[in-house]
């Protein structure tokens, strides 16, 4: 056997083929004999120890060869034998090495074979068993876990034991068995192969101890057998191929470096992990990602050792691989965080840290969004650890704020979060008010100036004296000597005697002495010896590296005129003590602190505006992060934080519950969370915060804040203690001002909407307060209190409830007292009376059981007293306001409260009838069960009769209410109608009633009367629009435009024929009129109350309005319109057709409008229709302005395959215009852009080539001199045969929308009666495609029923209310 040499094969099958004198397996045991052979081998192991492998290798090889045919227990028994043999081998080696001198060549050769054969077959068994285990695990994951599998077993290789045995062997001097004494590379590779195979199994991630043992083996191989280079290459290859390995190696490499002193491996790891990625032809996304992550993990584990490699890694920051750039930046981040954040950094380390930050800041602007995200996230983490120097903080923050408008959503999210982190972990404190910091800075500077005034003049004089001496006596001679010395070079310099071993301060002082003594050569020599040891030299060198003379002259000048030294001398000379000097130094530090604070706060202030816009971002993550920023900013008392908090309120108007919840939680964190210890203090703090916020709110934000408080109350978030405290403020039990009492009433009103019992149980309390002597004449307090009381009547009437709605009897003193106050206040000149009057009437009509009786008594009392008084203008204004307000409140009362109460009573009557009928049926004998079918039919018919009876009753109620509204409320029969002649007289005679307030009040009252009755509206509609055109007061125009929105909603058939007059106001000379007109029209269009027809072009013209507010309103309108399906696509051609003919719109303005609108178009929807409609606008004449602008519009479309095919189909329409240079170049530009575009999997190049061929044909001439014809259009085969499908209703609507030149809908503008108008309105809706195919007749009862069931008390339903003459929109005015 000694003559045989065992060679470790690369593949196990190689052992079956004979190669010269190498060992081969000659006897592959058949499976039937393996058990017997294994027993023989076991006996041989007992007798011979590890040497048994020489005779039994074939047996174990045969077991592996037939492993798939053998029982698992046979494999396990064989493995255990080999495990014992390997352990014994370690003892044998130890025994032989104890007597190295007696190792003969025969023993050595034998031991080499034993080593190789035993270790090889042992490792092969481990690899096989591990592979089988992995396959079994995969099978369990991929198949039924309960499936019986004969290969499934619970045997597990003890990897720790195996690795320990092999590690012990390789730590011995086994090289002595080889001749020469060098272990074969194949043997080392065999052991390494085992370690790599174990690492490749994903389950290794859970076995930390095994990982460390694997790297212990690697460490021995590298240290003892010089396996380092191969180890690095092989490990990096494994990392690239197996993603889980990257998370297992960092700790192992750290152990190798520390325990085996292999620091040199780090450079090879870094080089190997990055160098292969330079080859751009080799693409390996997984490998790149894993190697990049490996570098990051390495930097986390051993940042000290990675630090020297950064200079090598720096070159990869320009590499195209995003993952590699991220890895290098992560390495820098880890080094800065763990190495360069200490307080005792050397100057070299500080300089290196600064360089790292400069690189990191540069890559905040990286072209790749993932890189920008990672850099910003790393900066955020560094700020949390206070690892960013103050000198870089403001620069970094400014750079990050620029990315708040980044196109990438992840970058924006990270940037917002980073700004918030900088604010949370700022080094300047918790109170960050910019104005206060600036005031304190100014005070400290002023104080410092006073303290320095004693020596400031002397300092300036001293510096001036030194400057004169420098220029007259020193500068020229010194410069000449420096030039000569630099020309001579280092070797030829004159030797001078200068002091040696001086520190920097002493050297500087000595140079100053030499300069004063005119020893310029000595001064220069000392300065040159300083080299890089002083800050002055470093700074000057950076400024002028190519001008050495200038550098040295500057340094020597700064040393000669040492202002710091001068100040110290002058301070001492001015009689200042050491304590005074310390105070000045402390003051200087404070000033520096406030300067840094103000700069930081100004940077934060720059973030507020973009943060406000991000609150309304389409990305929810942007909104959440922006909300968190403003919460943090408010907590740190940033000056502009309140603006952002108020802006957050607008989010409550959106329909997304997630956004609303985020705002509610944010306000909870800001206003309901305190750090107080006592409950009383906690409650007072919350109430004071809420009152302060309420005082800062604008009117438009009041409803939004109300939504939040209401939700707090309904969910129990707002403590009862807070509500009790608000009652104490309201009743002024606590010493608070009247403003705070009114604000508390508003908070209680908002809270009561969420829980009605807050007010219903305290009505008597409120009535006592408002009618007390203290508040009897306070109209503002009365208004707030009445609004609070009105909440008691807000609860919607449930038509199926047996309980009547909450109402107070009209005989209750509260109504009479309130009416007396309102009547008395009517004749007093109180500017807040109108507000009190509206709130009071609202309370009366919502809560009183018979409000009209109270209202009639009020009007009678006022009328009687007016007869005895002269006609004063303010009384006319008051009367008109009162009449208009009463009309609207009565309209809402009849249309809502009365109708729903009638409906509830009808429902109860019908229910009682059903109950009585059921009782009668229950008394019948059981013998009546003759036919179940018959009984069921009878019951069904009886139910139908009941429903019809109920419907007839509701019809009667609805007709009654409609009749009252039409004929009684504002006609001469009613109380309000008696004053209609007066209102109309004021409106018709503006030359007599010239006062603005009188006219405005009269017009408002007239329009509110018009809201009540269609008859009154039809009679006075011409007067209304005459006033709109001829009035000289813009305030009256604005009032009419606002109320026209309500009128158009309620009576569209009456008002719509006059809508041209409203659109004319878009061109009014006054900005306020244009803004109001645009707002009203935009509101109606977005609510689908009117269609966007040809007049939309006039609204588009507002995009170029000279007033920025109007243009911004127009932009916002079209952006919101673009969010509705196909709306904008349908109107763009109409806008173009109109504006291109308007001479006032220049070509530049036209193209600006078109560019803005096309940018809003969805890039995937109905583009082919847009192409079709624009191509059809080409004219055969020479109107080049029109044709060029059509072509420009086509160039703005983001083409897909359908749109481009349509452009090809329409080629005949524009081919004759291609001879125009501008049109030709525009089409070439379109085709160039399309050739670069790929829509999904569709390549546009074939279509582009076809159009280019068509264009080329225009410029070709046939043999007969005629222009050649373009190639025919190739129509693509369509799937399916047979008749074309009918268009859906939605499709028909879309097609109808495209025909912009059609006339107005049929039936508009005709005069109809009140009841007839309901039917006409339905036809109108049918024309608009909203109810196509629905031609069922609906009674007036059913229409009102639908309106009330679907709409809340506050809200309005556009479609139903158009049909039912609902009054709710009128009440909003």
From TrEMBL:
State its location(s). Chromosome; Nucleus
The GO biological-process annotations, alphabetized, read as:
cell division; meiotic chromosome condensation; mitotic chromosome condensation
Task: State the similarity comment.
Answer: Belongs to the CND1 (condensin subunit 1) family.
Main location group:
nucleus
Please give the coiled-coil regions recorded for this protein: 434-468
One matching Pfam family, short form?
Cnd1_N
SUPFAM superfamilies membership: ARM repeat
Name the chain's protein: Condensin complex subunit 1
Q: Does the keyword Transferase apply?
A: no
- Where do Basic residues bias regions lie? 915-930, 1276-1289, 1306-1315, 1332-1341, 1359-1373
Q: Which UniProt keywords apply?
A: Cell cycle, Cell division, Chromosome, Coiled coil, DNA condensation, Mitosis, Nucleus
Q: Region entry Disordered: which residue ranges?
A: 910-933, 1262-1373
Residue ranges crossing the lipid bilayer per the database entry:
none
The entry's function note states:
Regulatory subunit of the condensin complex, a complex required for conversion of interphase chromatin into mitotic-like condense chromosomes. The condensin complex probably introduces positive supercoils into relaxed DNA in the presence of type I topoisomerases and converts nicked DNA into positive knotted forms in the presence of type II topoisomerases.
Q: Which residues form the Condensin complex subunit 1 N-terminal domain?
A: 75-229
Has the keyword Nucleus been applied to this entry?
A: yes
Please give one Gene Ontology molecular function term for this protein. Answer: histone binding
Query: Cellular component GO terms, alphabetically?
Result: condensed chromosome, centromeric region; condensin complex; nucleus
